[in-house]
C-alpha cells in the first residue's frame, strides 16, 4: 500500500546575517496508512520546518515529498483537501461559540455546515458548543482546533504539539481523541516532545535530531533496538552483594550497586555473569533485562550529533558489535 506520507532527502537551509543554518539536512520519513505516527525531536531539531515544508508554507532546498502518493508541493492543490493540519495554534474569537466558529470556517472552506455537529461530537465538544470560546479550557480550545481540521474529513491529520500546555486531564482527552480518529481510519501525524504520551498513543515513530532522522519504526521496534543493554541481578539471600560486584568488576563488568540488587551495564552475554559468579560459589536468583523507555532512547539518540555534511541518516550508521560479552 502507498504510504500516506513519504519524505526523502529533504533539505532546508536558512540564511541570515548570522550565517547559514541547515534546519533539514537530508531528512527521511515514511508514515503508513492508519497509523498514529509520532514525530519526535528536541527543540530546534526541524519538526516545524518539516511540517511547514510539507504543507507548502516553506520552500525546501532539496529532496522529495509525497502525500497520499502525490508529489508535493507540485500536486498540493490536489491533495490539500485530504489533509487537515494544525501547525500553529489557531486563534479563535473569544466571543464566538464553537458552533459559530466552526460554521464560519465551514463556509470559508466550502464545507457543508452539516459537518459541524459531527466534528463537535468527534472532539467531545457538542455539549459546550453554544458557549463562548473564551470560557473554554486550553484543552477544549485545542479540541476545537482539531475539530476545525476535521471539517473537510481529511485522510491525514497533522498536529504540531497538540498536547502543549495541557494538564494531565487535557492530555488524556487528547490521547483518547487521537486513538478514536485512528480507529475511524484516519492517519495521524503528531509532533511532540512529550515522550510518555507518544509511547502511549503512537503506533510508530520517527525521531529527528539536527535535521536528520535518527531512528524510525514501530514503538515496539524502536524500543527493542535500543534496549538499555543492562541487566538487573539478584542473588540468593545472605550473599554479600559487594563481594559479588567486585568479582564481576574484576572480570571486566560495569556494575552499579543498588539496595538489594545490582545492575550490569552493556551485558551482551548475561550467561557470563552467572558463570563468573558460579565459579566463586555465588548463585544468581534473578537476571532481568532492564527495559528502555522511549525517553531513554530519545535521550540516547538525540545526544548523538550527526556528522556535518554526511548525508546518510544516523540510524543507517553501522553499529560496532560487542567484543568480549560485556559490550566493550
Ligand atoms: N525563519 C527562520 N530563520 C532562521 N532559522 C530558522 C527559522 N525557522 C527555524 N529556524 C531554525 O531552524 C532550526 C529548526 O527549527 P524548527 O522550528 O523546525 O525546530 P523544531 O524541531 O520545530 O523546534 P521546536 O520544538 O522548538 O518547535 C532551528 O535551529 C531554528 O532556529
From TrEMBL:
Residues 5-235 form the ABC transporter domain. GO terms for molecular function: ATP binding; ATP hydrolysis activity. The keyword Transport applies. PANTHER family: ABC TRANSPORTER, ATP-BINDING PROTEIN. SUPFAM superfamilies: P-loop containing nucleoside triphosphate hydrolases (SSF52540). Belongs to the ABC transporter superfamily. InterPro entries: AAA+_ATPase, ABC_transporter-like_ATP-bd, ABC_transporter-like_CS, P-loop_NTPase. Keywords: ATP-binding, Nucleotide-binding, Transport. This is ABC-2 type transport system ATP-binding protein. It comes from the Bacteria. PROSITE patterns: ABC_TRANSPORTER_1 (PS00211), ABC_TRANSPORTER_2 (PS50893).
Amino acid at each position: 500500500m502507498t504510504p500516506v506520507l513519504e519524505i526523502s532527502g529533504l533539505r532546508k537551509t536558512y540564511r541570515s546575517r548570522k550565517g547559514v543554518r541547515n534546519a533539514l539536512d537530508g531528512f527521511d520519513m515514511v508514515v503508513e496508512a492508519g497509523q498514529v505516527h509520532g514525530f519526535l525531536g528536541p527543540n530546534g531539531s526541524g519538526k516545524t520546518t518539516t511540517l511547514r515544508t510539507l504543507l507548502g508554507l516553506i520552500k525546501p532546498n532539496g529532496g522529495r515529498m509525497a502525500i497520499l502518493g502525490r508529489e508535493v508541493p507540485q500536486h498540493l492543490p490536489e491533495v490539500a483537501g485530504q489533509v487537515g493540519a494544525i501547525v500553529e495554534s489557531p486563534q479563535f474569537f473569544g466571543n464566538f461559540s464553537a458552533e459559530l466558529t466552526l460554521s464560519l470556517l465551514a463556509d470559508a472552506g466550502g464545507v457543508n455546515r452539516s459537518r459541524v455537529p459531527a466534528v463537535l461530537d468527534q472532539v467531545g465538544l457538542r455539549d459546550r458548543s453554544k458557549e463562548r470560546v473564551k470560557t473554554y479550557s486550553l484543552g477544549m480550545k485545542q479540541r476545537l482546533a482539531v475539530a476545525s481540521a476535521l471539517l473537510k474529513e481529511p485522510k491525514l491529520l497533522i498536529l504540531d504539539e497538540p498536547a502543549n500546555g495541557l494538564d494531565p486531564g487535557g492530555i488524556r482527552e487528547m490521547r483518547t481523541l487521537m486513538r478514536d480518529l485512528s480507529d475511524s481510519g484516519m492517519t495521524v501525524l503528531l509532533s511532540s516532545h512529550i515522550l510518555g504520551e507518544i509511547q502511549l498513543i503512537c503506533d510508530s515513530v520517527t525521531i529527528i535530531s539536527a535535521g536528520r532522522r535518527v531512528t524510525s519504526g514501530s514503538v515496539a521496534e524502536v524500543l527493542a533496538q535500543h534496549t538499555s543493554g543492562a541487566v538487573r541481578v539478584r542473588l540468593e539471600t545472605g550473599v554479600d552483594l559487594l563481594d559479588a560486584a567486585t568479582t564481576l568488576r574484576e572480570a571486566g563488568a560495569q556494575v552499579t550497586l543498588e539496595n538489594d540488587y545490582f545492575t550490569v551495564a552493556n551485558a551482551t552475554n548475561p550467561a557470563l555473569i552467572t558463570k563468573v559468579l558460579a565459579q566463586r560459589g555465588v548463585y544468581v536468583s534473578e537476571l532481568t533485562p532492564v527495559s528502555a523507555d522511549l525517553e531513554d532512547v530519545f535521550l540516547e539518540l538525540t545526544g548523538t550529533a550527526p556528522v556535518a555534511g554526511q548525508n546518510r541518516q544516523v540510524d543507517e550508521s553501522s553499529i560496532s558489535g560487542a567484543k568480549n560479552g560485556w559490550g566493550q
